[in-house]
Amino acid sequence: MYSTRICPYCQAAERLLKSRGVERIEKILVDENPALREQMIQRTGLKTVPQIFIGDMYVGGYDKVAQLDRSGELEKLLEL
């Protein structure tokens, strides 16, 4: 998950994922390294955080993860 230390949506995404049983979240802190922010933009086309990947699959930001959770699709993705 591309993140920053102070982003409330990043924190909400982390809480949501942990509530669904995700034990380890690799946080890539783009506020500490501009090259990582550029990497995030190259991978996603977006400048905002969080940008979440499940395995190698790009999922999106917090709103998308919350939508997937409400629809039951997040659970299926986490099982892969």
Automatic annotation (TrEMBL):
Molecular function (Gene Ontology), one example: glutathione disulfide oxidoreductase activity
Task: List residues of the Glutaredoxin domain.
Answer: 1-58
| Domain of life where this protein originates | Bacteria
Q: Which Pfam families match?
A: Glutaredoxin (PF00462)
The GO annotation for biological process reads:
cell redox homeostasis; cellular response to oxidative stress
Family, as annotated: Belongs to the glutaredoxin family.
Name used for this protein in its record:
Glutaredoxin
Organism name: Candidatus Glomeribacter gigasporarum BEG34
